[in-house]
């Protein structure tokens, strides 16, 4: 046994007509100038958010490409050596353990105080990364950092555009509502004045 299914096409069509009648291009004489301006601003905000999607993608891709190239260039100037702890690791002021180490980089000896793991003793070996000048530097940066940079730029661009558009629409709507309410209050006072005069 089948049942008849009624699709609310009429209600949906009425909603479309109602929405269309409130747009700035509508010839509806009941639409005020402020209503048309507010509707136009909303359409511009929606268009800005839609356009922000490919723009955010392009900026994110450019940021990823630039960051990846920079990471590869930095990593190419670094190399690692095996260093020997001269003393036991100790806790530093920045809540990290560090120790004085010594290494030999192709016949060039060097010593420095570098961060190490907790509990290392004198004579233990650690890996130290050296820069082009032979001084200790940071470890190799992973390529995933470039991807995170690109994603961050894209997300910030899109969210920033969306938030700016939302604030602009909400702020303009609030100002227009305040102006319309003040005008309504003024008109009500104008209508109430003759009534009070007639009662006297």
What does this structure look like?
The chain is α+β, with helices and mostly antiparallel strands. It is 56% helix and 16% strand. Helix 2 (33-76) packs antiparallel against helix 3. Strands 1, 2, 3, 4 and 5 form a 5-stranded antiparallel sheet that branches.
Name a few traits of the molecule:
single chain, 200 residues, 3 helices
Task: Please provide a brief summary of the model.
This protein has about 200 residues and is α+β, with helices and mostly antiparallel strands. Strands 1, 2, 3, 4 and 5 form a 5-stranded antiparallel β-sheet that branches. It has helices at about 10-20, 35-75, 145-200, and strands at about 80-85, 90, 95-105, 110-115, 125-130.
| Total strand segments | 5
The fraction of residues in strands falls at 15-25%
| Pattern of helices and strands | HHEEEEEH
Mean pLDDT: 81
Give the helix proportion (percent range): 55-70%
Separation, N- and C-terminal Cα atoms: 74 Å
What can be said about the biggest beta sheet?
A: 5 strands, antiparallel
Q: What overall form do the CA principal axes indicate?
A: elongated
Backbone CA Rg? 34 Å
- Quickly give the structural class: alpha+beta
Parts with pLDDT < 50 across at least 5 consecutive residues: none
Number of helices: 3
Task: Please outline the helices and strands.
Blueprint: H1 9-21, H2 33-76, E1 79-85, E2 90-91, E3 97-105, E4 108-115, E5 125-130, H3 144-199
Antiparallel strand pairs: 1-3, 1-5, 2-3, 3-4
């Amino acid at each position: 046994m089948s049942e008849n299914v009624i699709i609310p096409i009429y209600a949906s069509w009425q909603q479309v007509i109602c929405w269309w009648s409130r747009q700035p291009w509508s010839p509806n004489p009941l639409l005020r100038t402020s209503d048309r301006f507010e509707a136009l601003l909303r359409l511009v905000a929606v268009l800005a958010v839609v356009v922000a999607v490919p723009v955010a993608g392009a900026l994110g891709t450019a940021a990823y490409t630039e960051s990846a190239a920079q990471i590869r260039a930095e990593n190419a100037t670094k190399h690692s050596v095996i260093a020997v702890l001269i003393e036991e690791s100790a806790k530093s002021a920045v809540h990290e353990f560090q120790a004085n180490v010594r290494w030999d980089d192709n016949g060039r000896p060097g010593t420095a105080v570098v961060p190490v793991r907790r509990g290392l003793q004198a004579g233990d070996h650690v890996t130290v990364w050296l820069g082009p000048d032979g001084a200790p530097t940071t470890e190799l940066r992973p390529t995933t950092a470039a991807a995170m940079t690109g994603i961050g730029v894209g997300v910030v661009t899109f969210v920033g555009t969306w938030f700016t558009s939302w604030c602009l629409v909400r702020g303009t709507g609030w100002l227009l509502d305040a102006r319309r309410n003040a005008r309504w209050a003024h008109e009500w006072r104008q209508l109430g004045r003759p009534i009070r005069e007639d009662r006297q």
